[in-house]
Each structure stands twice: as C-alpha cells, then as structure tokens.
Write a structure and sequence with these properties.
The complex is a heterodimer of chains A (255) and B (362). Chain A is α/β, with parallel strands linked by helices and 255 residues long. In chain A, 38% of the residues lie in helices and 16% in strands. Chain B is α/β, with parallel strands linked by helices. In chain B, α11 links the parallel β14 and β15. The model of chain B has no long low-confidence stretch (mean pLDDT 97). Classes of the chains: A alpha/beta (255), B alpha/beta (362). Bound molecules: thiamine diphosphate and iron/sulfur cluster (SF4). Thiamine diphosphate binds next to α4 of chain A.
C-alpha cells in the first residue's frame, strides 16, 4: 500500500515547496504546468539558493509560497520593478518576475517596456491565458478577436478594443543585443522548459533582459472542457501567437 | 574600509536639496532610485554626481511607481535604498508606500513639497501632509518628519534611515520647494563621530544557504485569504506603531511654559515665521507661545495638548487649506479650546502676516 502511494505521487521538482502542495490553481490551469517546468529548470541549473521569485497579482499570486526559493509577492503589474531593484542591489542573485498578461501588458506595461529597453538582467515570465483569470474572466490585452469574455460579452471587436498585444514581438523589437525573448506553450512542455532554462542562463551569463511568454489555459473562465481547452491553446492561440524564439544572444532563433 | 563622504564636522552653505544628498551619503545609503520632478530633481542631480565617488548607485526609472517599487526591491535585498519626490510624484508613490506599510519594508522618501492639487506650482506648499501621513489604502503606519531648515534637513534625513530600519515603517522627510532651492548655512558631520550608529540594513530575501534545506524559505506577501487573517496582521502593525510612537515623537516649543493669550501651532518652514512672530507679538503686549511638532506622524499628542492647555486659544498657521489643522483638531479633541486658523494654500507666510492676523482676530 505504502509503496503504491509513493508510485502514484508524481515526481516533484526538488525546489518545490511540498508544504504548499497540492497547489491552489484550478484543475487544468496552465500556471501549474509552467511552474513545474520552471521548477525543473531551476533544479537542473542548480540555482535554488540564488533565485528570488517575485509574483504579481492575478492568479500568479497563488504561487507566493510555491517554491522553496526566497519569494516576494508584489502588486498588480509591479513585479518587474521589484525584481529590478533586487537585481540592481544584489547582482549575484537570479531574479524572476512572474506575472499574468494583465500584469505585464496592461497595468505594468511601462515597466516591461522600460526593463526591456534598459536590458535589465532579470528574467520575466508572463502567462498569456487571453483573459484576467483572478478577477473572473474579463478581457485581457491578449484576448483574441471575437473572443467572448466578461467585458466583451459579444466578442472582442478589434475596432473597438484593439488587437491582442504581441508581447514577445514587441519586447524583441525594443530589447538590444544580449536579450533573450521567446514564446512557449503549455502544449509543448519540453520546448517550454528549454526556453525557460535559456532565459535563466541568459541572466546568469549577465547578457541582458530575458522574457518568455507562455501560452496557457484558463478552463475556469473559458468555461471549456479538457478537449476544448486543449484545442484553444494548441490551435486558436498558437495561430495568433506564434511559438518560438524571437531573440537569442549571438545565435539563431529556434522556430 | 570605504572612504567616508563626510569626515569630522564642516560648516557649509548650500541648498536644501544638496543637503539631502549629502545627508543620504553620510547615512551610508547605498542606492537611490528616482524620477525627475521639480523641486525635487536636484536631490537626484547631486546624488548622481556624488554617489559614484563612494561606490554608491543610482537608477532613473520610468516613473515614480517604478522608483518606489525598485527602492523596495533594493531594501528587500538588504540595501539602504531611498528615493525623493513631490506633488504628482508623491501621488504615484502612494502605491509602493502602502506595500511598504503592509510588509514592514523600511524605506526613506524625501519630499520637498510643491503646490497642489494637480500639477499646480513647482514652487512651494505644505499641501502634501495628508497624503504623506495617511496616503495609500492604509492606516497611516508611517513616520513623517517635517523639517524647518537646512540643519533639520541634514539631521532628520540621517535620522530617517535609522527610524525606518529600527521600527520598520516607511519614513518620510518633508521639506518644501523653498527649503529645497534656498541656500543656508549648516554643519554637516559624520554621524559616527557624533555617536550616531547607523542601523544595519539586513536582507529580507537572498540569505545564505539553500532555502527549505539549510534554512526556512522566506516567503513575503501582502495578500491574505480571510478577514481574520488580515485583522491579525494589521492589529500587530498597529500595536507596533503605538508602542514605537512615544520613542519616535519629536517637537519644539517656544515660550510655552507660562500662561499664553495665544499658542501658535505650525510645522515645517512656517514654524520659522511663527518663531519670528513671538517677539513682535510681545512688543504688542500679546503673550504668545509656539509649538512645533517635528513628527507629524506620529503626532506628539501629549506635548501639544499640554502646551495648548496653558493658552487661552490656539492659532494654526499653514501653507495648506487645513491639512495640518485637521491633525491639530484630532490631537486637541475634547479640550475646551478655541481653534483659529491662518490658511494659505501654496503660499509662504511671514512673521509680520502672522502678527497682523492674530491682532486682527483678537
Ligand atoms: C491596481 C490594481 N488594479 C486592479 C486590481 C485587480 N486585479 C487583480 S488580478 C487582476 C487581473 C489579473 O489578470 P492577469 O494579470 O492576466 O493574471 P491572471 O489572473 O490571468 O493569471 C486585476 C485587474 C489590482 N489588484 N490592483
Ligand atoms: S482562474 Fe484560470 S488562470 Fe486562475 S487558476 Fe483558475 S484556471 Fe488558472
């Protein structure tokens, strides 16, 4: 019996905080899978003692005690400057700013843009789930044209409320040599882990700003079953938001 | 051993903003974050010229929200970090300052007040009292020093760092555009030589060892799940604030020992006009005294009440439309004492004007 229980327990990254598991995200949410990949990346790089994990307000805040790494939960949109301050003060630490698309592209857009422009040596990870998860499914900067949300009940009309923010494309356009920019997806976890790892390594090498957007699910607010959720992430979102690397220091991008 | 920016004691003649930069250096601040706004900008400009010589850093951020949050980040990482702002910038600073209040992050913010509301003037006022003392969605768990001259600016900027780091409340040094831009003589000194020891800035995150293995992990947060959980946290902050208040409060009084016809209540640079008014009033046969709270938050309540008790009436004088008056009314609540006020929002006040008003209203 005991043996069976152990066999059924999924392998947890070493840097996860077992006391806060099972985690608080909804079943089928992309946050959990992304953080699993991030945990594995931290383990493989052996940086648990150097990482400072900052999380935003939004469902990302549910990760405030997710890892056994020193962490700070900040305000909506303000994780980028908090981690910037930490990194500027203690360059030997590895700063991760973890946020939603509302946090990064709306209320904290000026911080993302300026951190990228200044080539701050931090790693920003942004969950693109095409809506505001925590507040109950309102339109996000990333909501797809025609997509129904609580504040676009008849579907997002780009004429009225604009087109989705193309985050990595924007960051790649303004960041300078040394920056690492990619868009991964929960639909390809191996690739996502590779991107996250490179984004951390890029900071460790002191090259510059690192940014990974993650195509991620929010079945609770999308009101989708497993199949429809998967289809939306893998097909609808990927059609609009190309997955791949947009900027890699000194190297060719992986498409 | 790092070279000290200020050695021994030195008489100098400089602007208030320059004094603040020197004081932050003398207090061994490590890093400043800021965004330009008149009349604060020169603090940054002096800092950017002086700081590199002593291995200290600076970052000009994209706005004051960022300046506030980067400052908090640096403090969390264990540095003595600070910023300076005013007016609309102070408005934006309220968000990070409320996070500091909740998470007990020590931070120093220097505010040479400009006119308000809105963009108003870049010159002078005392209109940021309410916002500085009680801004943000908080309870005013903050320390606010109101300075009345360049020696004050030097002394209280240094002191602000120790108050912030000792008690772990955001600490503000209120100056104003007049003081910031005006030159005055003062003595600058190495705090150590006066027996002032700087409280060590300890990291809140990024400690040695593997978290969860060699030591407990540090998880800092400002979000809570239930009302009860929040209540406990806020009440603990309240108790700590109440306990620290008697140790923090500072004030000055002038001619308040005997019975007075009138007690003038003023803070900051207006206190100097009040001090100047006392001999003039005496010549006119009016027995006047003056009480100046140096800390507006916490307020020296007992001391102000004791002074007020010896006067027939009190007159509040300020360069705002009743912000300090509100604090006075709260402090003197329950005393049977007529309270009059001379309110000059965004305008300077002279000793002669105070005398004229007091005579007219007698
Ligand atoms: C200044 C401020 N405005 C609004 C909010 C309310 N709020 C909380 S979470 C959130 C949106 C979160 O959406 P997103 O950043 O996309 O993250 P998600 O929850 O989808 O992971 C908002 C608007 C807030 N906390 N602070
Ligand atoms: S609301 Fe959406 S984003 Fe938030 S935890 Fe649930 S599924 Fe995830």
């Amino acid at each position: 019996m005991a043996k069976e229980t152990i066999a059924l327990t999924p392998a947890m990254p070493k840097c996860w905080n077992p006391d806060s598991k099972p985690h608080k995200f909804c079943p089928g949410c992309g946050h959990g899978l992304t953080l699993k990949m991030l945990g594995q990346a931290i383990d493989e790089l052996g940086i648990q003692d150097k990482v400072i994990f900052g999380c935003d307000i939004g469902c990302s805040l549910l990760s405030w005690d997710f890892f056994n790494v020193d962490s700070v939960q900040t305000h909506h949109g303000r994780t980028t400057p908090v981690i910037t301050g930490i990194k500027r003060a203690r360059p030997e630490l590895i700063g991760i700013a973890y946020m939603g698309d509302g946090g990064g592209y709306a209320i904290g857009a000026q911080h993302l843009v300026n951190a990228a422009t200044r080539n701050e040596k931090i790693t920003a990870i942004l969950i693109n789930n095409t809506n505001y998860g925590m507040t109950g499914g309102q339109m996000a900067p990333t909501t797809l044209p025609g997509q129904i949300t609580e504040t676009t009940p008849f579907g997002r009309d780009p004429e009225d409320s604009g087109y989705p923010t193309m985050g990595p494309e924007m960051v790649a356009a303004i960041a300078r040599e040394g920056a690492y920019v990619a868009r991964g997806s929960m639909a390809n976890l191996r690739q996502l882990k590779r991107f996250l790892k490179k984004a951390l390594e890029n900071q460790m090498e002191g090259n510059g700003f690192s940014f990974v957007e993650v195509l991620s699910s929010c079945p609770t607010n999308w009101r989708t079953n497993a199949e429809a959720t998967w289809r939306f992430v893998e097909k609808d979102m990927a059609e609009h938001f190309p997955v791949g690397e947009f900027k890699v220091p000194g190297k060719k991008e992986e498409k | 051993m790092k070279e000290k920016p200020v050695k021994g004691e030195r008489r100098v003649f400089m602007t208030g903003n320059e004094v603040c930069a020197w004081a932050a250096l003398a207090a061994d601040a490590d890093i400043m974050f800021g965004y330009p706004i008149t009349p604060q900008t020169d603090i940054m400009q002096y800092w950017t010229r002086l700081a590199p010589k002593y291995g200290k850093k600076f970052l000009q951020t994209e706005d004051e929200i960022s300046a506030g949050f980067t400052t908090l980040g640096a403090v969390i990482a264990g540095k003595r970090a600070f910023s300076a702002t005013t007016g609309p910038g102070n408005v934006l600073f309220q968000e990070p300052m409320s996070m500091a209040e909740m998470m007990r992050i020590p931070v120093v913010l220097i505010i040479p007040m400009r006119g308000g509301p809105s963009t108003a003037t870049v010159i002078y006022s005392q209109q940021e009292v309410t916002m500085t003392a009680f801004g943000g969605n908080g309870e005013g768990f903050r320390v606010v020093y109101s300075t009345a001259g360049h020696q004050d600016l030097y002394d209280y900027t240094i002191k602000a760092f120790n108050t912030a780091w000792k008690y772990r409340f955001p600490t503000f040094v209120l100056s104003d555009g007049y003081q910031g831009k005006m030159r005055e003589s003062l003595t600058i000194y190495d705090p150590a030589e006066r027996g002032i020891e700087m409280v060590k800035a300890e990291p809140m995150l990024g400690l040695p060892g593997i978290p969860g293995v060699d030591r407990p992990t540090r998880h800092l947060r400002n979000t809570y799940n239930t009302e009860e959980e929040l209540y406990e946290v806020v009440m603990q902050i309240a108790r700590d604030f109440e306990k620290a208040a008697p140790e923090i409060v500072e004030w000055q009084d002038f001619d308040t020992d005997s019975e007075m016809d009138v007690l003038i209540l003023a803070h900051g640079v207006v206190s100097r006009a009040a001090q100047g008014a006392l001999p003039l009033l005496k010549n006119e046969g009016i027995k006047a005294g003056h009480f100046r709270p140096i800390t507006l938050r916490p307020m020296p309540e007992e001391q102000m009440r004791a002074a007020a008790a010896r006067a027939n009436r009190v007159v509040v004088v300020e360069s705002a439309y009743g912000q300090f008056l509100k604090l006075v009314k709260e402090t003197l609540y329950g005393m049977d004492k007529p309270i009059d006020a001379i309110l000059r929002p965004g305008v300077g006040i002279t000793a002669e004007e105070i005398v004229a008003e007091i005579k007219e209203r007698r």
